[in-house]
Here is the input.
Amino acid sequence: MSLALPVLVRGINNLSDARYCAGMGAQGLIFTLDPSLPGAVDSATARELAGWVAGVDIIGEFGYVAGPEINRLVEECGLTGVLLRLDRARQAWPEGLAVPVLIEVPANLITNQAHYATALHDVSAAFPQGFALFTTAPRPYPADYTYWHQLARQAPLWLASPTDPTEAADLAQQVHPAGLVLAGGEELKPGLRDFTELEAVFEALEEA
Here is the structure.
């Protein structure tokens, strides 16, 4: 399936999700590798699941983990990027990361243009190997996406996709973000998973 824009799927923890999302055209799969975060999987599980799919980026999600430890897992798991869940005010960014970063930031940080400009300057200096920002557009979703479109033109901006397929398509068509981040789910039992919601969003993003 060819999608109108790139899609990442977050919280991958089972083979059903990994194979389904790769088959539906997702650009990347995100594994939570920081044991302090909810839904974390160990590196062996991430490697095993990633070994069943091909042609997708494998991304690790981390909170407050030092740069050397992240780089160790980058090497061990073959990561092509990392997602950082950090509060810049609380702790310095991890240094010397070997791969590009996707940085989750609160929506209120980038809805203020001055704060957004400061954040861009900050992360540009911290991650010369490449970065993108990731956030959730405010709900209810506004009828006018002009401001969000302007933000997406200033720097790579990924948005958390709503579960409503119409809203997901609206974000893709009117904001033109770098991509959308969908949420994975749990198997009902090993090998059995209800993909109704994910399928609807993927189909709404399918390129005509």
